[in-house]
Amino acid sequence: MLMLDGVVMVLCLLLGILLDLALGEVRKYHPLVGFGNLANAIERLLNKPAASRWTGALAWCLAVLPLVASSVLVLLLAQYLNYWLAAIFHIVLLYFCLGLRSLHEHNAAIATALQAGDLPEARKRTSYIVSRDTEDADEAYLAKASVESVLENGCDAVFATLFWFILLGGPGAILYRLVNTLDAMWGYRSARFLRFGCVAARIDDVMNWIPARLTACTYAALGKSRLAWQCWQRQAPGWPSPNAGPVMAAGAGALGLALGGAASYDGVAEVRPPLGGGDAAKAIDILRALRLVETGAALWCGIALLAVLFLSGVIHA
User: Fold this and answer.
1) Which residues, listed in sequence order, are joined to residue 279 by a DSSP beta bridge?
2) What is the pLDDT of residues 240-260, one digit of tens each?
3) What are the C-alpha distances in Å from 222 to residues 191, 195, 229, 278, 286?
4) Where are the transmembrane segments (predicted)?
5) How far apart are CA 313 and CA 300, in angstroms?
6) Which residues make Cβ contacts (< 8 Å) with residue 310, sequence separation at least 6?
7) Residue 218 contacts by C-beta under 8 Å, 6 or more apart in sequence?
8) Gap between the Cα atoms of 254 and 295, Å rounded
9) Which candidate among 40, 105, 278, 285 keeps its CA 20 to 30 Å from the CA of 145?
10) pLDDT one-digit tens code per residue, 138-152
11) What's the pTM?
12) Rounded distance, CA 6 to CA 256, Å?
């Protein structure tokens, strides 16, 4: 069995989150950085002009399956040797996959720079986390970019990771983060990746479908619920991504902010569908978005604990 007792798994969930909050992401030799290097090597080897979707599927299997299988085998060995050793392994895997503290550090730095009136520093910090142009951006543009990043990455780096950990333990979190990383690297609709990255993008869509909607529900429950629900229903269908749409529309509505709209990428202006409704984003709204994600993570932990206690008979209906 890969999964431990339900109460122990919830304890692993809590400890994994606390470990991430205490230590943050690994500064050197992060496993996902190593995976990115591996994925780049595989892509260079297989993504030739004649590459098809089947080539992309093979590349995806070569990048993901050996690592997930290895995590399963190590976990089985740990569980065979010692029950608590397996629990520690689950915690470590979740820690490597979570990005809650990293999300806070990167975006809080943007808010701090904006509140100090240091636009050059805010532009530099924002360029670290988004692909849009920031060279001549004003406060509203930078704050909007940061808030959108918090909302979207709140799903990818936090809630979806927690979802797959709850479902499949440490290997589930590893599987999701590898899938999500490959989508970020290969899932472009460009001439280079249109066919090769198609499988990576579709698998990420499938694995994110339920977590994205649970994330949207979380945002709606903790913010302006009615507006969040309305924005989700009306605006999400117009967003290019089937999963980012509900997350960002509900999050923008929950915060009462007007997001989406114009953005510039590599000097090319792009008008995206509107998200949410209300005021333009400001520096303080970056911190509000971070609190929304962090409170949501605490809510998920509480629900998971109550569910396990109820199913184990400790709490009765």
Assistant:
1) 257
2) 889 999 999 999 999 999 999
3) 41, 39, 12, 17, 16
4) 57-76, 83-103, 157-179, 297-315
5) 20
6) 316, 317
7) 159, 296, 299, 300
8) 13
9) 40
10) 899 999 999 999 999
11) 0.93
12) 37
